[in-house]
Structures are given as C-alpha cells and as structure tokens.
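Lab meeting, item 3. Inverse folding demo.
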C-alpha cells in the first residue's frame, strides 16, 4: 500500500513493502545472496516487533527514533541478545534507512542517531594445525573432510568454497581463482603441496558428479554444491568427537589459516592479499599471540 504525501514530498509506504523494495535494491547493487538473506531475515524480525508494538501494519514514516531505540533495548533486555547480534541489527537498520532516505520513503535517516553497540574485546578463536587435523580425522564423510582441509589451507570463506566451479581450480598451475568473493572482489590463492595432492586424488579417484559444474560436488548433491548446513553440522559434531572445547565453525578455519601464517612469520600484506581484505586494519586482528608465545617471550629475560 503506497500513499502519495505531497505535503511532505515523500511516498508513504508500508514497512512490509519497503522491505521488499530494500531486497530488490540490494540485488540491483549486486550484494551477495548471503548478505541479502541476512538483511531480509533481520528486517522481518524488526517488522514483526514494530507491528506488534503498533498492533497492526505500520508506515515507514510513522516509525520514530524512539521506536528504534526501544527495539534495540528489547534485543538487550528482553531477548538478551549478545552484543554481536545486536550490532548486526544496528547495521541492518542503518543500511535500511540509508536506502529509505535515498528513495524518498522517509524524510530523514532516523537510524543515523542510534548509538553503536560496544563490542567486548576478545581474542579471535582459532585452531592450531594439530587441532585441525584432529577435527578432520573425526569426520567420516570424505568430501566434508576435504572441504575442512581446503578451508584451512586456503583461507577461503565457506561461501567462496561452495561457489567454486571446476574451472576455478587450476591444478596444473596450482591456483584457486576466487571469482566475485565478498564485495564482488576477485583474488588468486596458491595451492600448497599438501593440498595439491589431496585435490588431485579427489579429482582422479573420488569426485562422482560429472554433471555438476561445482568443484566440490557429489552425485548426492546433483548439479548443485554441497549444502552449508550439512557441512556446518558435520564440522561441529567432529570437533566435539575430537574433544575440541572451542566453538568450531567454517569461519574459524579461515581464522586458523591466517593465525597459522602469522605464527610462521608471514607478512600481513601477503595475508591480506590471500584473505581478500580491503585494508591491513582488518587483517591485523589476526596478530594475536598464544600463551606459549608470550611465555617464550618473557623467558628470553632469564
């Protein structure tokens, strides 16, 4: 439902329709499917809260700064969401209102005045090389075991890994081409010797999906790539089976790749290029040190 408001010079639009327009806009500017899905899911949650509060559908221009502040307070006090989750909703609201302001759905960006969420400073969780091997050994499904080792040896995001096509992995040149990774950026990642042998063995002896263009595929996945939930659940169960107390996810393997390179004295510029980061500030979060390294440092004074 859209109502022209000539006095304000804006188009009055129900929040539900504005959310649909927002999704269309994100697609038009080539945001990744994962980003669009996340924003869509967040806006559905926000819309439900605001409509319950108003006891019915709401127009976007009826939503006040106080409504948004109440929503953020609701996330903290009622739902008891962690700072990271609240921060995600904060940035979703920021993005939505930038869009709504640009498209004259609202007169001003009321989300711009929201306070940022203070995030606790924590060390990044990562696995040592030994722990990665332990987790991989606890996985019975061949393809998922290979994907786990691939993620650790390349630093690719799980979405980038699942999107890889056969032509993107050049075993002759020992190179992985990441096409339109995060923020639509391309990059090249070399294949190390250990991973090379695993990938050659996979192509020659194990890959059984001739009709699929995806590199990591089996006959069970048809023409598509192997599902993320299946990989994630298998990885989590394997970590528990291996006795790893850390919360192990696919993204932790990316952290582990970067942390292993830092430990081996690889420069941040090289790590930045391998990870596809836009600047060194992001890459520098991986310069954490282990307690063993700190102990070794202070013991140099003995």
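The presenter then showed the designed sequence:
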């Amino acid at each position: 439902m859209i109502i022209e408001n000539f006095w304000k010079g804006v188009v009055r639009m129900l929040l539900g329709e504005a959310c649909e327009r927002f999704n269309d806009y994100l697609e038009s500017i080539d945001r990744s499917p994962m980003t669009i899905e996340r924003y869509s899911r967040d806006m559905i949650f926000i819309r439900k809260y605001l409509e319950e509060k108003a006891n019915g559908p709401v127009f976007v221009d009826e939503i006040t700064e106080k409504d948004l502040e109440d929503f953020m307070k609701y996330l903290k006090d009622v739902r008891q969401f962690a700072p990271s989750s609240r921060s995600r909703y904060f940035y979703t609201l920021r993005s939505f209102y930038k869009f709504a302001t640009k498209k004259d759905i609202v007169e001003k960006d009321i989300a711009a005045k929201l306070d940022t969420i203070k995030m606790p400073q924590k060390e990044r969780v990562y696995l040592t090389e030994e722990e990665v091997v332990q987790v991989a050994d606890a996985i019975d499904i061949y393809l998922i075991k290979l994907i786990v080792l691939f993620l650790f040896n390349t630093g690719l995001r799980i979405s980038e890994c699942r999107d890889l096509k056969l032509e993107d992995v050049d075993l002759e040149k020992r190179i992985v081409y990441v096409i339109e990774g995060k923020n639509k950026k391309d990059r090249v990642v070399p294949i190390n010797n250990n991973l090379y042998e695993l990938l050659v063995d996979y192509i020659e002896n194990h890959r059984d999906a001739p009709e699929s263009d995806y590199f990591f595929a089996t006959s069970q996945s048809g023409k598509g790539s192997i599902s993320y939930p299946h990989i994630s659940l298998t990885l989590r169960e394997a970590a528990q089976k291996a006795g790893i107390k850390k919360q192990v996810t696919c993204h932790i393997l990316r952290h582990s790749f970067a942390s292993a390179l830092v430990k081996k004295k690889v420069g941040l510029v090289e790590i930045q290029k391998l990870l596809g980061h836009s600047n060194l500030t992001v890459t520098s979060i991986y310069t954490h040190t282990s307690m063993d390294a700190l102990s070794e440092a202070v013991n140099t004074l003995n």
